[in-house]
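ok so I'm stuck.
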Amino acid sequence: MSATTPVYVLSGFLGSGKTTLLSHILKKKQNNKLLILQFEEGEEELELPDFQDLRWKQMTWSKKDLDQDFNSIKEEITAEIELGSYEEIWVEWNGMELFSRLEEIILQRQLGLFLHIEKVIYLADVPEANLLLGQTGEGPISQVAACDVAFLREAK
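replied:
not stuck anymore, here's the structure
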């Protein structure tokens, strides 16, 4: 295990495939102790394998929760990470939120010694992204700017 825990972030608009991709990735992570943070309640529910009961923890908040209780959520995540001794953390970030809000949680002074953002993956449907990117504020643009890789699909 490395000195710090890697954090993997999936971001993108609602319906872009974040939860589906995360479900597929997690199927390959049977032997890892994982924390899964979801910051939106999308159209799909995350499919967690049966074996995950003791080694995985899933925490979910809606956009409304994030807007109303940001500091409480930040404290809850901090406490879980400090106690959990996770090998990896997977984040499904709300497609409308500024990426800096996630960084404020993950890279805060208290957690910065334990965590590092390993990879940021942005998912988008080309027609939807083309329509929404310029009309939905700075949140989605900040996510594209922060990503290491973007997966674009021609969904209709």
